[in-house]
Every structure is written in structure tokens, then in C-alpha cells.
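dumping this here before i forget
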Amino acid sequence: MSLLDHLTRPVKARTVRVSSWDQRGRNQDYWTTPAHSSRVLADIEGPGRITHIWMTQFCRRALGPGLIDPLEADTVAPVMEIHNALGVNWEEPDPDYYRKVLIRITWDNEEEPAVLVPLGDFFGVGHCMPNSYQSALFTVSAKPEESLVFGGSAALNCWAPMPFNKRARIEIVNDNDLPLQQYFYVDYELYAEDLPEDTLYFHARWNRSNPCNGWAPDLQTNSPEVNIADLTGEDNYVVLDVEGRGHYVGCNLSVHHRQGSWWGEGNDMIWIDDDFRPDGTTVFPPSLHGTGTEDYFNHAWGMQKNAYLYHGAIVHEGDVPGYAVNYRQHVVDPIRFEKRIKVSIEHGHGNHLSDDWASTAYWYQTLPSPKASILPLEDRLPTRPAALPQPAPSPRHGAVAEEIAEMRRRHDERWRRWQEHLAERTRQRGERSLKESQGNIDHSADLRRRYDAQTGRTRSADV
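structure:
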């Protein structure tokens, strides 16, 4: 059977989309989510299935007043991609915003979200550094000048199928002090019949240890002294530990290696169902025991610079020394569980390294969704090299000193007015995005009613 066989058979469904299109019919096709607020991208009545999510966004911090008034620029698309040295604008991307913004997805009116992950990590943008890659479930496409740059812009795609029976709700949560400007598509199908009772729902969770609890980060990887016997895995880094019934379909892993040698060698260990004793302790070895971190990600002799359908490197330490992002997707070889699963990896053999590890786990399971939590903002931010301080201004004397003082006064006044206008533009765009969010909700509801009328389906009373 071919993976494309579904294209040869008719399916009773209605294809629909919600997006950030400018509902005034103009060309400002992006939404603004102000600082410390959220936006509902989609709120859809089921039964249905999300088939594709596309997003691109930018989050810029102004360093000084530009020559174009923010309110005058409010009528056009964001085309200010001009080099700061030209003096027309002066701004930079927030290098950490991919971790400051969360994606939250909730199925069927559940109390707990099924997805609660930093926006970048969900799509494979580890360390807030986008880089182009292609896989079965996710892709990222970034221009060369935006690649491997903290806070660079990129196109993000997800093709993981996401069924829902009663309701799907997708939200963006902006924990940043800056507004987020975002374009998006959410493509989905509506069905006339309820989903089967044993339907598995898409889930994703994020975890981080910074640092991992290594017992010898000062000893070199692969040296004889670190070759201890680990026959418990109790100090492993945990990618996922969840109860329920379903299957694990993979993860991405972002590592910032501090030692300057090699961050791999840690074995993957996955416990399933009766690998757990009644008192919660685990048997050893677990159902799945691997031979090394690079081996779990289907590489060998270290990591290679490639990105395949089910495994690959998104960021290679050869691209940015000390940084790596890798993924493994169990699409054709999902790891099944009936009661519980725990996915873990040693951080260095025997857990001797104390690197910064962050991961996003993906899996499907029956509802209810397990309890969701996320680290506070300050514990989510990526590890970045410290920037050099700006030199202090050198003093001048005589007549030129008076002119310099006047120029600084003019700059401060222009900067004050520019910030006021920027804040007003953000407020206006935020209010319009709220209205368009409601417009998307109303549009989805109208399409659901029309499709029900077409198919003769009776709407559920508990939606």
C-alpha cells in the first residue's frame, strides 16, 4: 500500500481554512499579539481534523527612532527589511522570542491543553536559531541571512494529523515584553460523522534541564574515567513520562554543549507498561535500550549535517560550535504503550555531562490529556554568548560640544515621539487582530452549520 493511496479515493469531508488574512481586504495580512497577551488563532467545532499549520512571524525591538513614522507605515505590509546602517530604521529581532511565545492547543473542551510548547521548539527551532530542514511532520524554511541567527524569521510548517471530535482551539501566548507580529494558516477538514471512540489525539510537551545533573562535566567525553556502569538510568534526561494509551512518535532535542568535546554517547532508554512495577520503580533493562545518543537519532560516529524524513540534524555543531538540534520521528515505527511510557536519554555516558538540554516530545493518546505545565519564562530562555558592552561616548569640548548636546536633545525628543506612535500603532493592530480572531471563529462556525445542513448531520448538544 502506498502512502499516497488516500489521493485515489473520495472522502466525505469539507476542506476549510482560518488564517491571518486582512479581513478589510487590504494587505496587512498579519496579526499583532501585544506583550503579555494571547490570541485565539482557531476555535473550531468538530468532528474534524487539522491537516496543516503554517506560520511565520517577527518580533523586533526598536533601538532608536526611524525616519518613517510608525503610524504612517501602518497602511502597508511590513517591508522595512532595510539594513540599519542606512539610517532609515534601527531595530533588531528579539533573539529569544521563540522561547517567550507559546503555542497551546486544546481538544474537545478538555481542561488541560494537549500541546503546550515554546513556539520555536514545537517546529524544531531550537535555541531560537532557525535553520532550514525537511522532515515527515515538520519543516522550517529560512533565508540564508536569517538562518542560524538568534531570533531570525522563518516559515514554519506542521503536517502532523490532529483529529478532534467536539472542538479544536489553537492559541498563541505571548509572554514577551514586545508584541508579536504573525502570519498563519490553519487548514482542516470537517466530517459528517463522529470520530471512532478509540481515536488517538495529538500531544506535545517541552522539557529542559539547564544544566543536566552531570557527575563529571570536567572529565572528557569517552575518557576511561567516565566509563562507569549505568544499570538503572535513574539520572537520565527525561524526554517524556506520561500515562494513558497511545504511541510515541518522536522528539527534537536541542543541546548546548559546554565542555568543548562531544555531547553524545548517552544511551536512550524507553520504559513501557509492565516495565514499571506497582510501586512505580522500573525494571532494567527497559523494553527499548539503545547504544548512544547519535544512534537514537539514526546517525553514527557523531552527527552528520543532513535532514531526512524521519531523522536528521537541524543545527549541527559544525554550523554553530557548541550548539546542536536533532530530531527523530517514529512515523512508520511508532512506539506503542497501553498504560505508561517513559522516554529518556543519558546526558553523556553514565550521565557525566552537565550540558543544556531541551526537548519537544510528540505522541498520540486517548483523552483526557495529561496535566500540562511549562517552565517560567526566565528558565526557558536559550543559552547565548554574552555580547560585548557598548563603548561609552567620548567627550568633546568647545563649540562642537554644544552642538552635540543639542543633537542629543533632538534625538531624545524624536525617540520619545516615535515610541509613542509605535505604541499607538501596536494598540490599533492588537484591537484589529482581536476582531479578526472573532471573525475567524464566526467563519468556522458558519462553515460548520452549512456543512451540517449539506450532510444532514445533527449538531451535538454538548459542543
